Amino acid sequence: MITVAAVDDDRMLLDGLSSWLAGAEGLCLVAAVPTVDALLARPRARAADVVLLDLVLRDGSTPEHNVRRVRASGSRVLVISTVADRTRILAAVAAGADGYLTKDHDLETLAAAVATVASGATAHSPELAFAWVHDTRPDRPRLAPRERQVLVDYASGLTLKATARRAGISAHTAKYYLDRVKEKYQEAGRPAYTKTDLARRVREDALDTGPDG
Q1: For residue 213, what pLDDT is reported?
Q2: What's the CA gap between 6 and 70, in Å, rounded?
Q3: Which SMART domains does the UniProt entry name for this protein (predicted)?
Q4: Do 113 and 27 share a structural domain?
Q5: Which residue of 158, 166, 195, 203 is 20 to 30 Å from 58, comparing CA positions?
């Protein structure tokens, strides 16, 4: 059973979501609240496996701050919204959100996304892919296709030799590409010294499934 909490300041939507999820097999809604403050004030809600978080709340909070607070509590985050606001979507994902959906999807799609997020993976959607395609933030380095391939494979846990074999290049060449990737991220002000750093950059920029820069 996956426990789910919802944070949205639309009362009608929260009531509808509560009824909706009541019939979803394998999902249990433990809280439906209007703010992250209200969520974190409830111990059971704070321990939910996945939090459905509205992209923009009327309390003046920012998407990235809300995502960081929820993630810090131990829950994974699936951001939902009525409008595909690219800038805010990317800020939320960069802050640690595990996926994004617009609210016009059906229950089956939502349930599948929740299960994906609960498993530790990222819930991708056409809206999120569109946001990545149009990502023009200056702190996202533009990687060449081979640089990206080496980065993604190496950050996934492969050794440098295994990464080189998969790319069909020498280990020396793979290291050259990896060094270039590190330089580009460091120039953008985002640390990339260790494999853990690199894995975090891959996740933040959705490079395992997103478009080439």
Answers
A1: 43
A2: 11
A3: HTH_LUXR (SM00421), REC (SM00448)
A4: yes
A5: 203
Q: What is the pLDDT of residues 138-197, one digit of tens each?
A: 667 888 889 999 999 999 999 999 999 999 999 999 999 999 999 888 888 788 889 988
> Which of 89, 109, 133 finishes a domain?
133
Q: Is residue 58 part of a domain?
A: yes
CATH number at residue 150: 1.10.10.10
Residue type, 73: S
Task: State the pLDDT at residue 116.
Answer: 92
| CB atoms inside a 10 Å sphere around CB 196 | 11
Whether this model's pTM surpasses 0.70: no
The tokens of 75 are what? 């829950």
Q: Is-contact 34 60, C-beta < 8 A?
A: no
Other beta carbons within 10 Å of 176: 15
